[in-house]
TrEMBL record, chain A:
Gene3D superfamilies: Cell division topological specificity factor MinE
Pfam families found in the cross-reference section: MinE (PF03776)
Organism expressing this protein natively: Propylenella binzhouense
Name of protein: Cell division topological specificity factor
Residue intervals passing through the bilayer: none
From TrEMBL, chain B:
Originating gene: minD
Family: Belongs to the ParA family. MinD subfamily.
Function: ATPase required for the correct placement of the division site. Cell division inhibitors MinC and MinD act in concert to form an inhibitor capable of blocking formation of the polar Z ring septums. Rapidly oscillates between the poles of the cell to destabilize FtsZ filaments that have formed before they mature into polar Z rings.
GO cellular component: cytoplasmic side of plasma membrane; cytosol
Gene Ontology process terms (BP): division septum assembly; negative regulation of cell division
Residue ranges of coiled coil: none
Name assigned to this protein: Septum site-determining protein MinD
Native source species: Propylenella binzhouense
Residues binding ATP: K11, G12, G13, V14, G15, K16, T17, T18
PANTHER family associated with the record: SEPTUM SITE-DETERMINING PROTEIN MIND HOMOLOG, CHLOROPLASTIC, SEPTUM SITE-DETERMINING PROTEIN MIND HOMOLOG, CHLOROPLASTIC-RELATED
Stored SUPFAM superfamilies: P-loop containing nucleoside triphosphate hydrolases
Quaternary structure (record): Interacts with MinC and FtsZ.
Listed Pfam families: CbiA
């Protein structure tokens, strides 16, 4: 055993780092995107504001997680002046 | 407006209870009205770390089940007027905590305090998810060690999906508190560096608590480390973290309390 191998034996942190990066990339792909609701909300707001002026806090996205089925509830309040027929649109999927 | 903060980690033994006590005491010392809540039903320890174990009469479960009023269960800290403790039950199990009961207690605590700090049990089951449910802010306590980092990643996933904030489609405010950090070992490549952990977990850094004998000394005495020896390195690191939580911009540094040769030879104190 020379001096160099002594030194190499010590620097174990890079190994830990690499093992974690590989493991977590795998585990995250199984559990899926965890901030799904926040991402959905942003994209829904982006789509709606293309066509109607809505206030950000009038867009509600809720996820109810169940064992077999999860439900996504989207509630968007649209100012009456812009959409006289439907002041609020609700969708459940 | 009150802020609810959960101190969580997934893995046990990384410093959740120590951090809850230290951050709570630091915020209270800054003049904030603080309550620390022990959610570890059946394995309560926050009372012991806070030095209030002989003053527990009623607990969280008694309040949740309506057997005691909140005011009867709250224990006012003897050192800091603005710091209170809501202990967990030692004899019941976690199933005694109902979601509705916790909702009610949290609403009441929000009215009374500026900060409600929830000390989460380890794991990813019902206890930890109840502890994080009402949080506005999460402090993820992590050691620079592979199993702790992996479990923190898992907990971050739960914070983004199982909390009321996540269910409303809002983004949970998450912060990393790196504890038991040894800058010298990290520099020698023997320990994950701050940047390694930050890159892997990708949440903002709240503070770096150096490995220190002061932490055990404080818990031996039943005093939060920020009160036990405010000049020590971990106390300074926790106080800085508390200031960052309340919005003060404080530059990030790793305080150290290495003593000189003289201190090493003669400075040993009995705790």
């Amino acid at each position: 055993m020379n001096l160099l191998s002594l030194f190499q034996k010590r620097a174990t942190a890079p190994v830990a780092r690499e093992r974690l990066q590989i493991l977590l990339a795998h585990e995250r792909s199984i559990t899926g995107r965890t901030d799904l609701v926040a991402v959905l909300r942003e994209e829904i707001i982006a789509v709606i504001t293309k066509h109607v002026a809505v206030e950000r806090d009038k867009v509600q996205v809720k996820m109810e997680r169940g064992d077999a089925v999860s439900t996504l509830e989207v509630e968007i309040e649209i100012p009456t002046a812009l959409a006289p027929a439907e002041s609020a649109a609700s969708a459940a999927a | 407006m009150a802020k609810v903060l959960v101190v969580t980690s997934g893995k046990g033994g990384v410093g959740k209870t120590t951090s809850t006590a230290a951050l709570g005491a630091a915020l209270a010392a800054m003049g904030q009205n603080v309550v620390v809540v022990d959610f570890d039903v059946g394995l309560r320890n926050l009372d012991l770390v806070m030095g209030a174990e002989r003053r527990v009469v009623y607990d969280l479960i008694n309040v949740v089940q309506g057997d005691a009023k909140l005011a009867q269960a709250l224990i006012r800290d003897k050192r800091l007027d603005s710091l209170s403790l809501l202990p967990a039950s030692q004899t019941r199990d976690k199933d005694a905590l109902s979601e509705e009961g916790v909702d009610k207690v949290m609403a009441e605590l929000r009215e009374k305090f500026d900060w409600v700090i929830c000390d989460s049990p380890a794991g990813i089951e019902r206890g930890p998810t109840l502890a994080m449910r009402h949080a506005d802010v999460a402090v993820v306590v992590t050691n620079p060690e592979v199993s702790s980092v992996r479990d923190s990643d898992r907990i971050i996933g739960l914070l983004d999906s199982k909390t009321l904030k996540a269910e409303r489609g809002e983004r949970m405010d998450k912060h990393l508190l790196l504890t038991r950090y040894d800058p010298a070992r990290a520099e020698r490549g023997e320990m994950l560096k701050v940047d390694d952990v930050l890159e892997i977990l990708s949440i903002p850094l709240l503070g770096i608590i150096p490995e220190s004998q002061e932490v055990l000394r404080a818990s031996n005495l039943g005093t939060p480390v920020t009160l036990c020896n405010p000049a020590s390195a971990p106390a300074k690191a926790y106080s800085d973290a508390a200031r960052r939580l309340s919005g003060e911009p404080i530059a990030m540094a790793v305080p150290n309390d290495r003593r000189g040769l003289f201190g090493k030879l003669f400075g040993r104190r009995a705790a």
